[in-house]
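Page 42, continued from yesterday. The earlier attempt failed because a stray header line got pasted into the input along with the sequence. Redoing it now with the clean sequence only.
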Amino acid sequence: MRKVILQEIVSVDGFAAGPQGELGFFDAVDDYSEVDQDNLRILAEVDTIVLGAETYRLFVEYWPTADDEPVAKSVNAIPKLVFSSTMDSAPWGRWPAARVVRGPATDEIAALKRKPGGDIMVWGSISLAQTLLQAGLVDEIQLRVCPVLLGRGRRLFDDAPAGLELIEAKPYRTGMVSLRYLRPGRD
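This time it went through. Structure tokens are written below.
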């Protein structure tokens, strides 16, 4: 069965965004090159990227034209799903458009997991991530912890089930840390 990977950048105190959804804390790390190299390895096994509507809007403003970013070619080439109740289309610059899904994310992701294919990557999309976590559809959680304290903001884990198995903890030169966890019973 395909694996659903949730990858999120968070602050040391566990926030995935500031109080108004701002992501300026990402700038606490001035060099993502080591993270990019790890992501290239991970993306080699991914054949679907899943985004919520807000994250899609942020990503589409950047990735389709980010030619000097090491992961841009992979990010742009991998097929994408955008979960939205209001969008009709999700163009992706000169790359193939994302497919908009209006139905329940849990139904679509559960169906995708049963089909053959590569891993499914969920990026950002806090509300969508929380829904998938609560439904038990996330197999692996990858946190990229920025060396910054926000004090308040939007948490990724409000109601998520507890009990994770650490499979990797990796520090980077920049002070960022990568933490990878499996959900119990997943491998």
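Notes: The helical segments are 33-43, 53-60, 72-77, 105-114, 126-134.
Reminder to self: strip header lines before submitting.
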